[in-house]
Amino acid sequence: MTAKLLLTTLLPLVSDLSRELPEGERYRRLLEAMRALLPCDAAALLRLDGEWLVPLAVDGLSTDTLGRRFKVSEHPRFEALLSSPGPTRFAADSDLPDPYDGLVVGLHDHLEVHDCMGCPLFIDERAWGLLTLDALAPERFQSIELDALQAFAGLAAATVNAAERIERLANRVEDEHQRAEVYRQASGQQNREMIGQSKTYKRLMEEISLVGGSDLTVLITGETGVGKELVAQAIHAASPRADKPIISLNCAALPDTLVESELFGHVRGAFTGATNDRRGKFELANGGTLFLDEVGELSLTVQAKLLRVLQSGQLQRLGSDQEHQVDVRLIAATNRDLAEEVRSGRYRADFYHRLSVYPLLVPALRDRGRDVLLLSGFFLEQNRSRMGLNSLRLTSDAQAALLAYAWPGNVRELEHLIGRSALKALGNCKQRPKILSLSAADLDLPNASIEPAPEPQVAAPTAALITGDLRKATEHYQRQLISACLERHQNNWASAARELGLDRANLGRMAKRLGMK
Fold first, then answer.
1. In terms of pLDDT, which residue wins out, 282 or 268?
2. Is position 437 within any domain?
3. What's the domain range around 348?
4. Mean pLDDT across the chain, nearest whole number?
């Protein structure tokens, strides 16, 4: 490697240190320069986040790699790189599995990485992450001097440091980590990350950041499966209440007789079965955040009592006259059109306006472009780990199918699809493979979903039924209509409800009344 080549490659990066660039663009230029300096088939920059490595930028690897989260303890090569003070080059015949097997783009037959090297990055003397280089040809890196990678790693660390300072992350990383840890302990839930790079996703994150710093009540709306609870958690994490608990209640999961007890608590003897005093969700969330999911399912009576608590901050447990003062930030979510519910008299106008101080619409997955590939990568890595595979990947036709599909069930549907397809594909293998590739056929997505949904084709009730009993004929027709719609949507009740112009819960109740559920 000549000094002139080294200088020509590194000078633009040095110049970039003093420029304001988007974080993604800064990291892209870094990898581009590294591949010019140290020829390889793929390169990646990964940040260490606790026990996980998070890809920030990749060059030569499939898009879904950015959505993957690599658990260090499950990838011995990453463990070796992080435990070394400097660059490491693995032998071409190393038997350690490579995390990028099957992920190098533009390949169909030779999927395994044969030559691999990498270097840890240190910021303020702490391990920050990794730079990795991979090649499909054995001994590609034999002629590369490790000192060259070490020098580049030093510049990469400076680039990362500049990016973090520009974005004011350096002073917040430790604080956010502590907040996340407190949240996980308080909520008893595993921390879940929001993933995306599309413009719609970035606009959503900007709104979350904006409203998170306030104490405003937020009404999160959006289709079923878009991740409204994740958005609520992100708002809480961005708020001054982040070190306090976020308490959740699914209002549709409880009958009206129990919702009040769950929200406000009760005293012993308040009703049959109330053998002890119990605090409600409001008191548990005191100082923190209360998240009410499916808030459109609340009865008018409960809405009135909630309104009083929101206005005064005072509540009474069921069966008690004693007032309890609470300080709670409320976040609510629904897939209903509450404004229409108000117009039809099924929802209190004053409660609706109290909820929708800051309305926040979560975009549908079909409106997020290539985010579907990043999210796929996240779910692929989860299933790879769960199934004990070396690599779980998507073929190019599978990626195209994911991008073309309309996703009526949104992110939840994608998560279930990846898990189901991986399990079926593994079951079809005569021998357990090192690399399991999911094709479009494995995903088995309906082609019809790309086209507009056909109009329901249901036969009208027969004349005999009509002349016999109008109510029975009507119910017979409703059963036919719902059954046909469910069949078109592969038994997805949320999708069927949207086509029929009904709320999901209302469709469920109608089906139960008709003896279908």
1. 282
2. yes
3. 183-361
4. 82
